[in-house]
Amino acid sequence: MPDFDVAVIGAGAAGLSVAAISAGLGLKVALFERGRMGGDCLNTGCVPSKALLAAALAAAAARRAGRFGVRLPEPDIDWAGVRAHVTGAIAAIAPNDSEERFTAMGVTVVRAHARFVGPRTIEAAGRRFTFRRAVIAAGSAAAAPPIPGLADIPYLTNESLFHLPERPEHLVILGGGPIGLEMAQAHARLGCRVTVVERAAIGAREDPECVAPLREALEADGVAIVEAAEVAAADRDGPGIALRLADGTCIAGSHLLVAVGRVPRLGGLGLEEGGIAHSPAGIATDRGLRSVTNRRVWAAGDIAAPEGLGPRAFTHLCSQHAGVIARAMLFGLPAKVSYDALPRVTYTDPEIAQVGPTEAELRAAGRSGLSTLRWPLAENDRLVAEGRAEGLVKLIADAKGRLLGASVVGPGAGDMAGVFALMIGQRLPLSALAGAVLPYPTAQEAAKRAAGEFYTPRLLSPVTKRIVGLLKRRP
């Protein structure tokens, strides 16, 4: 008999979800984790970054209070206090992901590096464990681009950024994606000089109409943005660092944050011994997240590369993966992962949210008969009252009024994304949102008004006007 029904490698968001579901269903579960419980999201990703952004937002609010007739002095940034807030947020959430909690569920937690030594055997802590089913949820790590000299300087990643004892004097950020932009704005608002260096354009994956207001906001916060920049070399510059660009420009700073993407943690897992196919993108799986070569093994989270979809590095995707694996692995149901309604959010101020494909992606895929619907947040009463009415809701629908993609930039864009994810995932028509009764005044009304734009031309058409003209004669 196998030692365990389910063996899970990795105690991040995906692994914890699978372990909790499996144990809750009465299965014998082993959970292997060599690092901190909770993985990157809790310890070095989502939680500390959003805590830092919250501190930065408080500083920005103090600086902008004068426009409401509230005069405050320039905020005094206590870096030790900011760090205490960040670590306090992690500590408050940590019990949910703790070894004690999962042990109480009946999970056997093994705090050691785990590797496959056979198709159905894992070795960890000097022991061998056999399993019926296994789930690899080892996550991802910050990618390091092949820049000459980079390996010889003390650069930061998300794993080390939140442990700085002193506030950086000049933080240079390599990468203009979500992590780079969030940390750029946070540090600029907390009193650091910040320069973002991006080889293409910042927010390159997002709708350009949404990126434009964010670029203005970042520059207003004092962030210097260098785009279309090819880094030729990285060097030390006294106690700091320097990036030398291909055009001869030198950008020097006190600290360098590398935020150019993520790579799956494949090393040391013994994938060859386990008969598990993989590539630099991650574990090769079918749409049910099952290994294409070892049918006893599944993959979840950042390390999974489903056929035709590739990897995605989002914490909320981990819960979706866990649900698919539970249905497919535990119940034998034909569950498959889909990213059609997958939301992503850049938690800057303003936020950028994208659900499903962008307009450019849909048109590049050859979709025709598309309707592009826009509603400016300048027309939203709540945001006007709060002095935050900058941004846009942009919806892309097919000819029948079914939502295909949504792009939002503005305050609370991430909260609005949930409505669009539900609509796309459930294939709801725009009429469902346009006809909904929403509380006034809220930012969500902008989503409703954008959906209503699909029907406005029909309601005001000459045919409709003639019908109303005839009906007015009724007794």
TrEMBL record:
Cofactors: FAD
Molecular-function annotations in GO: flavin adenine dinucleotide binding; NAD(P)H dehydrogenase (quinone) activity; oxidoreductase activity, acting on a sulfur group of donors, NAD(P) as acceptor
Residue ranges of every copy of the FAD/NAD(P)-binding domain listed in the record: 4-304
UniProt binding sites for NAD(+): G175, G176, G177, P178, I179, G180, L181, E182, E198, G261
Gene3D superfamilies documented for this protein: 3.30.390.30, FAD/NAD(P)-binding domain
Binding sites annotated in the UniProt record for FAD: K50, D302
Chain segments annotated as transmembrane: 6-27
SUPFAM superfamilies (alphabetical): FAD/NAD(P)-binding domain, FAD/NAD-linked reductases, dimerisation (C-terminal) domain
UniProt keyword terms in alphabetical order: Disulfide bond, FAD, Flavoprotein, Membrane, NAD, NADP, Nucleotide-binding, Oxidoreductase, Redox-active center, Transmembrane, Transmembrane helix
Cofactor: binding details: Binds 1 FAD per subunit.
InterPro entries, sorted: FAD/NAD-bd_sf (IPR036188), FAD/NAD-binding_dom (IPR023753), FAD/NAD-linked_Rdtase_dimer_sf (IPR016156), Pyr_nuc-diS_OxRdtase (IPR001100), Pyr_nucl-diS_OxRdtase_dimer (IPR004099), Pyr_OxRdtase_I_AS (IPR012999)
Disulfide bonds: C41-C46
Domain Pyridine nucleotide-disulphide oxidoreductase dimerisation: 343-450
Family: Belongs to the class-I pyridine nucleotide-disulfide oxidoreductase family.
Protein name: FAD-dependent oxidoreductase
Species for this entry: Neoroseomonas marina
Lineage of the organism: Bacteria, Pseudomonadati, Pseudomonadota, Alphaproteobacteria, Acetobacterales
